[in-house]
Amino acid sequence: MEIISSQEDLSKVMERSKTDINDVIGTVQDIINNVKLKKNQALKEYTKKFDKVELNDFKVNHEEIKEAYENLDEKLINSLKLAIENIGQFHKLQIPKEWKVELKNGIEAGQIIRPINSVGCYIPGGRAVYPSTIIMTVVPAKIAGVERIVCCSPPQKNGKIADAILVAADLAGSDEIYKIGGSQAIAALAYGTETIKKVEKIVGPGNIFVTAAKKLVYGDTDIDFPAGPSEVLIIADRTANPNFIAHDILSQSEHDPNASCVLVTDDEDIAFKTKKEVELLCQKAERKDVINQSLKNHGKIILTKEIKESIEISNNYAPEHLIIITKDDEDVLKKIKNAGSIFLGNYSPVAAGDYGSGTNHVLPTAGGAAVYSGLSTESFLKKPTVQKITKEGLESLKDIIIPIAEYEGFYAHSNSVKSRLNDLNSNE
């Protein structure tokens, strides 16, 4: 990893590996159009072309799920159950409360909570198998009360979805599972086929083709947010453990050659010790090719003059994952404006949030944390407002509604109030 000064040009660090969908937008639009037109037939053609598998039936049946349980190690099954328990406990606390207030005599207003009816959860299956992502998408949807939860994931060479994904989907509460991947899966979820009914919202991470497809179908169906390659930024001072930092850097860089890992520190000793630890760990890492490419492309150590400057860089970067290892983590936390998920102290690795501490790992990347939050129970809820107005309450509003409505040229709006007030006066 290269050590640079905060006084140098940080624009390339800030840009990191932002996904540019313009390179694939035409291809993805063609795929979406074809799925809308040919439906199941298009899915079969694309599955054969991209996944090298011929399938006649995309839906996972009960026997396949049963077989997956039999094939999977019992220890892993128990780990998935414990993860679901922790994630469920956390996400239950995210359910907002319904409320109402009397604004003045005769005017009562409030907010109610309702789940969306259906959701499609996309689970990547390219470089690795991600049962954890199934849990992170399905569990909050289930807790929110979504009636129909659909999961899509690319088939393996044997024509099946990985056992761990099937078991995780079943344990988490998925209603339907389909062996479809890529932008064709997003199109099927958005518009439906003979086999798959369309959904109201699509969530979950994916590659550039999946990201492009989600952006293109947005409006016809809702999406969570665009998500690109994973990233971590670490704010550290002299109290941090360089070995721990190095492990966190490797754990993020092993995701993808385009993953971004940035250490921002005001301590020169921490900078150089971390660099050395990273180099030593890389030599024996299992995914060293991916890690080395990631660190070469987007791995940086930024040396600042003071912690205040480190915080400013982090807020401008708006990282997906932010680790804070400083003398006073809570004080630094108060100054953080933009981050997807935050980890405090030497003993809070990103891996905890990825798998089982309870928080969600489906998070905005590439600066998206400046405007988006990560996936949560609220991602699957709607908040309709409700009001009940008495005759007296409407009378008290007439001097607000009528002048403004008529100024805007909406006389029917004005008359909808006047007619009620006239009726009220005639009955007195």
Describe the protein's architecture and organization.
With 428 residues, the chain is an alpha/beta fold. It has 3 domains: 2-18 and 228-358, Nitrogenase molybdenum iron protein domain (Rossmann fold), CATH 3.40.50.1980; 21-223, Rossmann fold; 390-426, no CATH class. Helices cover 46% and strands 16% of the residues. The protein is built from 17 helices and 16 strands. Strands 1-12-11-10-13-14 form a 6-stranded parallel β-sheet, with helices on both faces. The protein has a 5-stranded parallel β-sheet with strand order 7-6-5-8-9, with helices on both faces. It starts with a strand and ends with a helix. The model has no long low-confidence stretch (mean pLDDT 93).
